[in-house]
Amino acid sequence: MPRRSPAVAGMFYPSSAASLKKQIEECFLHSIGPGKLPSGKINKRSHPLALISPHAGYVYSGPVAAHGYLELDGRSRPRTVVVIGPNHYGIGMDVSIYPDGVWVTPLGEVKIDSQLGRELTELSDIFSLDELSHAREHSIEVQIPFLQYVLGDFSFLPICMLDQSIEVSLEVGRALAELLKERTGIMLVASTDFTHYEPHQVAVKKDSIALDNIRKLDVETLYRVLREVDISMCGYGPVSAVLEASRRLGASKAELLKYATSGDITGDKSSVVGYASLKIEYP
Fold it and tell me: What are phi and psi of 202, to 5 degrees?
């Protein structure tokens, strides 16, 4: 059975379980975070349909990510979380599903929902079953410890997008929507950062344009403004796939929970990266 070992433990987040749990809690309690820890309670209210979450080192983007993951607290827990991230390293297949086995983090193992992956490949030939694309990629990996901390036991399905063209993103979204029409207990997570390495005020202005279209689930206009305004958002494909799936399932909007830049954390606003946390509820 394949075991995917962490690629960025000790870099993007701590490599020991105790230190990692402590840093996650600090993210929730941070002044830029939601300011409280999850209660651990569960009730019958459905979990969100989708989250959009950043993927930088926890010291930079963790407090923003915590806003989204706090939305899972006090609600029914998804059985499977589909995490879709961009391929930063250019290796592997265009749209890759990790096929089977477990992913390992300092907090333990998470089992791949291999049946769900096979069902997706039957719905569209856009997907490939491939381990190589995931070997070094951090955009999916950094979401897992937050999910482990809040949810405890769950399975997940990682999808890594090398091809982020609008045609591919819409097809991934279509297939995900078809899958979720037939299955319950599934939550989507799109992993992205926003503007990279520009002054804080420039990043805020550019990212607000992208976020306006994300909130409206408007994929076509999002692609246009990314090009016209030159917004260096790295996970636009995963986000667009989730927006398209949500729209097809009847959702009408995404809610912005928190936006900040690395400059809000470090105090250095000369060259920042933008981070946002959003949620989409089931209609």
Answer: -65, -45
Q: All domains of the chain, ordered by start, with CATH? A: 41-193+234-252 (3.40.830.10)
Residues 32, 37, 40, CA angle at the centre, nearest 5°? Answer: 150
Report the distance separating Cα 133 and Cα 153, nearest Å: 25
CB-count exposure of residue 189 (10 Å: 0-12, 13-18, 19+): buried
pLDDT band at 139 (very low <50, low <70, confident <90, very high): very high
Task: Output the CA angle 67-81-244, nearest 5 degrees.
Answer: 85
Q: Each residue of 63-83: b (16+ CB within 10 Å) or e?
A: bbbbbbbbbbbeeebbbbbbb
Question: Which DSSP symbol is given to 129?
Answer: E
Q: pTM score > 0.85 for this model?
A: yes
Report pLDDT digits (tens) over 160-198: 999 999 999 999 999 999 999 989 999 999 999 999 999
